[in-house]
Design a protein that fits this description.
The protein has about 325 residues and is mostly helical. Helices cover about 45% and strands about 0% of the residues. The protein is built from 10 helices and 2 strands; from the N terminus they run ααααααααββαα. The chain is rod-shaped and about 100 Å long. The protein binds a DNA duplex (18 and 18 nucleotides) through α6. One of its GO terms (cellular component) is nucleus.
Length: about 325
DNA sequence: TTGTGTTTTATTGCCTCC
DNA sequence: GGAGGCAATAAAACACAA
């Protein structure tokens, strides 16, 4: 019994071949051992043929009919080299490989049959399958790793691309904000502040309309998604004059007649670095929060936020020479 | 020939299942 | 409790460069 309390192949013998088998081009021969014959060491060396001998490879000195001296040598070899490992022959390996491909699990009956066919001890067959499964598993893990690596690379490339787009958009927002501030820097302060209170009913009304329009499209200008709510609400504003040039607000201390409740930190430098993806999405998709911020009126063809965008231009017609065309 | 890295065969200990 | 699977590991066999 092996030191783990395990009995291997019904004996504690080293893996010694019992008889020639699986010779190239020849069908495997039955094993005496498995045919109910006495243990190999009792059979004499005639049955103790190494794998190399079986295959006829390794310039074997042995044959099916050997001298007594040879048998004696092999008997000694059995005891003296019991720790030596014998490699399976090419044909035995081919046979085992085919069997493994058919089914990598080894039922007892199949194990015995394989051992019989190959002239191996059942334990050797079991060990071979066990090691083969381990190799297969390692290979499988390699393949899985490669697949995951490729997937990761693709996602990372996509992420980098989107990050770059995001940075470009931030830069454009900054430029537009600067332009806006410069454009209205000299606005007559005297015309100004009739600042409506935050709870201004008109603003709230616009806000509500904006919400209601979020899911509607605007066939008129072909812009959808990103600016739909703003464009449609802007259209409404044109109609009922709820948002006109006489409404004046301030951006960061700069008099602005065009924005309501403008959060300058948002307009001038929205730092979304800490935003969650959802927040990022809301920032880019809606561009402005649904309330109470309002964009100035935008005309078709005026939007050009997408100089860096191709497929992801958020519905903005691309025009590299004009960013936002603020139409009042 | 020899040193070294890799592959293959086999062992050990632990775990699960029946 | 025995049989068998698996992970970790040992060690022999093998490949190959220097």
């Amino acid at each position: 019994m092996a030191s783990g309390g395990r009995v291997y192949g019904g004996s504690n013998l080293p893996p010694i071949m019992l008889q020639p088998s699986a010779a190239p081009g020849c069908p495997p021969l039955d094993s005496f051992y498995l045919s109910g014959s006495p243990p190999p060491f009792l059979l004499g060396s005639t049955s103790m043929v190494s794998f190399e001998d079986v295959n006829g490879s390794g310039n074997s000195k042995r044959s099916l009919f050997r001298s007594f001296d040879q048998e004696e040598d092999e008997y000694d070899e059995y005891f003296n080299q019991s720790g030596k490992k014998r490699r399976l022959t090419v044909d035995q390996l081919k046979f085992l490989e085919r069997s493994f491909e058919a089914d990598n699990k080894l039922e007892p009956d199949r194990k015995l049959q394989l051992a019989k066919d190959l002239g191996l001890q059942p334990r050797q067959v079991a060990i071979w399958f066990q090691n083969r499964r381990a190799r297969w598993k390692a290979k499988q893990m390699e393949r899985d790793y490669d697949v995951l690596q490729a997937s990761f690379n693709a996602l990372k490339a996509d992420y980098d691309r989107l990050s770059q787009e995001k940075e470009d958009l931030k830069v454009q927002i900054s430029i537009l904000s600067d332009e806006f501030v410069q454009k209205h820097q000299g606005t007559n302060m005297a015309e100004a502040p009739q600042a409506l209170p935050p709870e201004n009913p008109a603003a709230a009304s616009i806000s509500e309309e904006s919400k209601q329009d979020e899911n509607s499209t605007s066939p008129k200008n072909g812009n959808k998604g990103v600016l739909d709510s703003d464009s449609t609400s802007t259209k409404k504003r044109e109609g009922d004059n709820m948002f006109d040039a006489d409404s004046h607000y301030y951006i960061s201390g700069v008099h602005s007649p065009h924005l309501e409740h403008v959060d300058s930190s948002f307009i001038l430098e929205p730092d979304s670095s800490d935003l969650s993806q959802d927040e990022d999405d809301s920032l880019s998709r809606g561009f402005l929060p649904s309330t109470p911020y309002r964009l100035p009126k935008l005309e078709p063809g005026d939007y050009s936020l997408a100089s860096s965008s191709t497929s992801r231009n958020f519905g903005f017609p691309v025009d590299d020479n004009a960013f936002w065309s603020w139409s009042f």
